[in-house]
């Protein structure tokens, strides 16, 4: 059994017991979250596709931790013009564990 959920403008394929990193959520560590934007649900070999979401389907998850991803370097320059700009960025994330998929 798996589901495709949408959170933070991205889509994730999840099963029960999966640990995934999503865009940062406002919930604290240890709290339970319900994702109601379930786009696809596979259950007992049957595929339910929503228009745009599957009705009465929920995915429950627990927040494990918050953190920041690896640093990426953004370097801009223009040749022969002495223009250089170096900037770093670390994207915040929330790590969640999928507890239950309800249909």
Structure description:
The mean pLDDT is 94. The protein has strands at 2-7, 10-15, 19-23, 32-35, 38-43, 46-49, 58-68, 72-78, 83-89, 92-102. The termini are close together. The chain is 0% helix and 65% strand. It has a four-stranded antiparallel beta sheet with strand order 2-1-5-6, with no helix packed on it. A four-stranded antiparallel beta sheet has the order 3-10-7-4, with no helix packed on it. It has one domain (2-102). The radius of gyration is 19 Å and the shape is elongated. It contains no helices and ten strands. The protein has 103 residues and is mainly β.
The structural class is mainly beta
Radius of gyration: 19 Å
How many DSSP-defined strands?
10
Strand content: over 45%
Task: Summarize the main sheet.
Answer: 4 strands, antiparallel
Largest sheet strand order: 2-1-5-6
Give the termini separation. 11 Å
Query: Which outline best applies?
Result: elongated
Number of domains: 1
The low-confidence parts are: none
Helix content: under 10%
The helix/strand order is: EEEEEEEEEE
Please name the defining characteristics of this protein.
single chain, 103 residues, mainly beta, 4-stranded antiparallel beta sheet, 0% helix, 65% strand
Condensed summary:
By secondary structure, this protein is mostly beta strands.
What is the topological layout?
Layout: E1 2-7, E2 10-15, E3 19-23, E4 32-35, E5 38-43, E6 46-49, E7 58-68, E8 72-78, E9 83-89, E10 92-102
Antiparallel strand pairs: 1-2, 1-5, 3-10, 4-7, 5-6, 7-10, 8-9
